[in-house]
Amino acid sequence: MTTEQFIKLAKEKVKDYTYQEVLCKDESYSDHFSTFVVWQVKVLQNYKALLATSINGDQHYYEATYNGDKNQLYLDVYNKEDNKNFGVKKHDDQKYTVQVIKNIPDSFLNIGRYNSAMLFGTAAEKIGWRTHFTQAELDRLKQRDDIAIDWSKAIIEPVEDD
């Protein structure tokens, strides 16, 4: 079976299922609709595709699987029950502080926002000064010749809320 044949067969089976199980049970749906592939993959002689229909309000999701060894097509039908949104902080966005002297509260690296001036102070960011750095920024700071910090002894900790 070719990819095109699999997709055609999968769409056909989704359409048949929709006519038999969705449209006949709910008169509000139109019988003029299309099916489309959301995602598809082929591994060896097997295929898998995720499909949906263009029917407004149809909450079904279809998973078609072709077993090339058995020459069989399986159709799993899922009904969307809920959609939750969870904010995820990007790994690259994590910020860190650099404490240069252990147990001294005002020994955090502060770098000027508008110039390259450096001083040690509190971990809190203040107008004109940065104390929270991404990993990429820390890597660049470690390469600077004008910063005489023993980075192996510096205390680098993640900032909880930036």
Which tags fit this structure?
162 residues; elongated; 19% helix; 4-stranded antiparallel beta sheet; alpha+beta; 3-stranded antiparallel beta sheet
Can you describe what's shown?
By secondary structure, the protein is α+β, with helices and mostly antiparallel strands. It has helices at residues 3-23, 135-143; strands at residues 35-43, 46-53, 60-67, 72-79, 95-99, 108-112, 118-121, 129-130, 133-134, 155-158. It is elongated, with a radius of gyration of 29 Å. 12% of the residues are buried.
Overall mean confidence score, pLDDT:
88
Largest sheet: 4 strands, antiparallel
Placed side by side, the strands forming the largest sheet appear as 1-2-3-4
The secondary structure category is alpha+beta
**Backbone CA Rg:** 29 Å
Q: Flag low-confidence runs.
A: none
User: Quick one: overall form?
Assistant: elongated
Topology:
Elements: H1 3-23, E1 35-43, E2 46-53, E3 60-67, E4 72-79, E5 95-99, E6 108-112, E7 118-121, E8 129-130, E9 133-134, H2 135-143, E10 155-158
Antiparallel strand pairs: 1-2, 2-3, 3-4, 5-9, 5-10, 6-7, 6-8
